[in-house]
């Protein structure tokens, strides 16, 4: 069953992120990754009309947090409060990761046009649930008037998945990140009148 992503899903979604990506920052202090992945979920939870959960027997199998490129981060108070219990070194690492998300998101926004839907955070446990959820998001985005969709993925992710789903990678060279992995930007075009600069990618549908 696909349903809207709710505030009550944040903790479960953060745990899924930890399970999927925790190895990326296993050198961080033990108490920090769970907080970082909750921050990641909150960072991308911007639009309730474009964020969804695939649920089976009350267990989240996949979730996708989407939004318009113009939607802003809206959890500043939580971000400030989350740092209260952190040491100065932990706070530095926490904010460094926030900057990593923010800066890569800014790269996506720089190449977005009017009515660009963004796939912000997309995590699936497999079994075809992710594909169904991505297709649902794309259809909802088109119904809301989206002309295209953009996303970024790093080399820790299964970024080839998006090309198999009709997305195209524009950049000839990926961008190094502070985690020493690489960043890829993908887009999918929903209508023929959409135009992008040559630094990205595309599939016509």
Give a structural overview.
The protein is α+β, with helices and mostly antiparallel strands and 205 residues long. 37% of the residues lie in helices and 23% in strands. The protein contains 6 helices and 8 strands, in the order βααββααβαβαβββ. The chain has helices at 10-21, 32-44, 76-82, 88-110, 129-143, 160-164; strands spanning 2-4, 51-56, 59-68, 116-124, 148-154, 168-169, 175-176, 182-189. Strands 1, 2, 3, 4, 5, 6, 7 and 8 form an 8-stranded mixed sheet that branches. β7 and β8 form a beta hairpin. α1 packs across α2 and α2 (32-44) runs parallel beside α4. The longest helix has 23 residues, at 88-110.
Which helices and strands appear, and what pairs or packs with what?
Elements: E1 2-4, H1 10-21, H2 32-44, E2 51-56, E3 59-68, H3 76-82, H4 88-110, E4 116-124, H5 129-143, E5 148-154, H6 160-164, E6 168-169, E7 175-176, E8 182-189
Parallel strand pairs: 4-5
Antiparallel strand pairs: 1-2, 2-3, 3-4, 5-8, 6-8, 7-8
Helix pairs in contact: 1-2, 2-4
Q: Classify the helix fraction into a percent range.
A: 25-40%
Mean pLDDT: 83
- What is the number of helices? 6
What is the chain-wise order of helices and strands? Answer: EHHEEHHEHEHEEE
Gap between N and C termini: 26 Å
Give the overall shape, derived from the CA principal axes: globular
Number of strands: 8
Strand residue content:
15-25%
Largest sheet: 8 strands, mixed
Low-confidence stretches: 172-180, 191-205
